[in-house]
Structure formats: C-alpha cells, structure tokens
Design goal:
Layout: E1 2-8, H1 12-23, H2 25-32, E2 35-43, E3 47-50, H3 57-67, E4 77-78, H4 82-88, E5 93-96, H5 108-117, E6 121-124, H6 127-143, E7 148-149, H7 152-155, H8 160-165, E8 173-179, H9 182-192, H10 197-206, H11 215-218, H12 221-234, E9 245-246, H13 254-262, E10 265-276, E11 279-290, E12 302-309, E13 314-320, H14 324-345
Parallel strand pairs: 1-2, 1-5, 5-6, 6-7, 9-11
Antiparallel strand pairs: 2-3, 3-4, 8-10, 8-12, 10-11, 12-13
Helix pairs in contact: 1-3, 1-14, 5-6, 6-12, 9-10
Length: 347
C-alpha cells in the first residue's frame, strides 16, 4: 500500500530510518507491498521540508552527510514548524522522534495528540509521551480510527513489546524484569574487567553510549520510563513516575563488583514490574544476579527482558537496545505492522 510519511525530529534515529527506507525500497515493495513516501521532514536544527509528491531520500542523505542539514534541498516548501507539518501536510502517518522529556513529555506529547486528533497514524520512539500519557493517547487513537505504535521506546528494534502483544497473546504475564539500559550494562561489564566506575563511565562517554551528563542512564531514569511503558502496556497498569522505586548504579564500587564475582554473581541494573493480584509493583535498581540467571550473562551494551508467564514459564529476549539503524528498524517494523493491518481491513 501507499503510505505518506512525515518525520518530526530528524536526529540520529531519523537518519537511520531514512537509510533503511532508501536501501530496502524494492524489498519492502516486493515482499510486503509497502510503498512509503516521505513527504515532509520537520526539525528546528536540521531544517524543514514539504513536498506532497515526496522527497528524494538519496538527496536528503547526501545533504545530511555533506552539510549536517537539509536546508539546501530544492523543490520543496521549507520552514514549516512541526505542528504545521502535522496538521497541513498530506502525510497519513506521523513519525515522532523528538527527544525524551520524562517530566512533561514536551515537545512530543502535543505533537502526538495533534496527529491523532487529525486521524493520522503515529509511530514514535519517544519514551516520554508513552510513559506519561499512554492511556490518553491510545483512547485518542481509538476515537479517531487511527493507530499508535511505539516498539522503539523499550529496547530499540529488539521486539520486546510486539513479542508480548502478539506471539505471547493469550498468556498471562505475571512479571517482567530486564536490562533495559545498555549504557549502565556496559559500565557494569567494564567494571567486571577491573575498571572503576569513573573510568568505565568515561569510556562509555567516549564510545557514545553515555551523554556528557549521564544522569538519565546512570541514575535509572531511562529505565524508569521503559518499565512504566512495560507495566502499563503489557500488564494493564496505571503506573506513574512517582510509583517506581528508583536507584541507579552511580554508587556501586569496584570493590562491590569484585566481591560479587567471587560469589559467581553479576551486578545488573534491573527494571522490574510484578503483578500481585490487581496491583503492579515497579522498581529500577541494581541487583546481584546468580550465574544461572539468563540476565546475568548479558554483557556490554546489550539489553534483555525476561517475561514470567503462566503457561511457558520464563521467556527471555536478548538484543540491541540502542543504535541508529537498530532503532530505525523499530520504526520500520511498526510501519509494516500498520501497513499489514490496513491491507487486511481493505480486504
């Protein structure tokens, strides 16, 4: 099917998506009958473009590589802000990729609201709006006969949400626990090799895993957002930020890591959501895991989630939790899901 896309927020992940759409164009059309056209891009730093017939993705990528922006692109209306792009472009799907804000959900939350009220499907990797307002946004999507997808908000392209919602449909999930932040897992892995916390953090920053101000990762806030999404979407919860017990890894010492190793244990930052009757308890904190725990062997920047179920017991999924193309793939998988459903509904 034809699909007209508008990308709001063109950072690393947005570029990764454009690369995949360009490289896989023929494959997506032949195998999945999916023929997407990017008609609009809106980003205050990189530039904003609109052409109702579609933008040339090869030229967009060339400009990004050469100039770091798309302001010299010809044959397009330029300068629209994000709200105008959402409201007035002919896009039927809005891909919302603005930075996460766990306090207010801005700027992504009003963008997603506006798109859904306009009857446009939304795909996002922005954890803030989904963690803060999932029920409201899903109700808006239902009321306006459109779809909201956000696989990339948990562990990038590794299909944690879709695994639980589709292949594991019909199973009761009683607990979800996981390594949902690759930065902290990388730091703890490097500490097991003898580095201090400060040395491991500096290396993670040099490799681009950690920000210059790493609080979202090392203090557990990123994992908090993800465990809220897991609890509310997969377990029917109504969890808010203040409901999650939180402790980061910034107080863990090399001595503690070495002592754990002597016990054949491994420190991991674990996000956990546990269903007790109708109540869901959530926590993000460092835990010492036994060597036979499937999460204990997950090293480096890799993520993993273990679902405890009533029929299959524990089901664990392991994979990359970040990255330009990995997260771009999460968006692509959501777009394909929307395309499948529309094909089915159209008969």
């Amino acid at each position: 099917m034809q699909s007209k896309l508008a990308i709001v927020g063109l950072g690393t992940v947005g570029k990764g998506l454009i690369e995949l759409l360009y490289e896989k164009s023929n494959f997506l059309s032949e195998k999945y009958h999916f023929n997407p056209t990017v008609v609009a891009i809106s980003d205050p730093r990189v530039g904003s473009l609109y052409n109702e017939s579609g933008l040339d993705l090869k030229r967009i990528l060339s400009l990004l590589d050469r100039d770091g922006n798309i302001k010299d692109y010809p044959d397009a209306i330029s300068g629209w802000d994000s709200l105008k792009t959402i409201k007035e472009s002919n896009a039927d799907t809005i891909i919302e990729l603005t930075p996460t804000n766990l306090e207010t959900g801005e700027p992504g939350l009003p963008f997603i609201r506006t798109a859904l009220k306009a009857g446009k499907d939304v795909v996002t990797t922005n954890k803030g709006p989904i963690a803060l307002a999932y029920r409201e946004l899903q109700e808006l999507a239902n009321e306006n006969n459109c779809m909201l997808r956000f696989e990339g908000t948990v562990i990038a392209g590794t299909p944690a949400l879709n695994l639980a919602l589709s292949p594991l449909a019909g199973i009761n999930i009683t607990e979800v626990r996981g390594i949902v932040n690759g930065t902290t897992n990388y730091i703890l892995t490097r500490m097991e090799s003898g580095m201090s916390y400060e040395e491991a953090l500096k290396e993670a920053q040099l490799k681009g895993y950690a920000e210059a101000i790493p609080d979202a990762d090392v203090k557990g806030w990123d994992a908090v957002a993800k465990i809220i999404i897991i609890a509310n979407v997969l377990m029917g919860g109504n969890v808010t930020v203040k409901d999650v017990e939180r402790e980061g890894i910034d107080s863990i010492t090399l001595k503690e890591v070495e002592e754990a190793a002597k016990e054949n244990k491994h420190w991991k930052l674990i996000g956990r959501a546990t269903k007790l009757d109708r109540e869901i308890k959530t926590r993000v904190s460092p835990e010492k895991l036994d060597e036979d725990d499937p999460l204990s062997q997950v090293a480096g920047a890799t993520n993993a989630i273990c679902f405890t179920t009533d029929i299959l017991g524990d089901v664990t999924i392991i994979g990359p939790g970040a990255g330009k193309r990995e997260t771009g793939f999460a968006i692509l998988s959501d777009l394909l899901d929307i395309n499948r459903l529309k094909e089915f509904c159209s008969g």
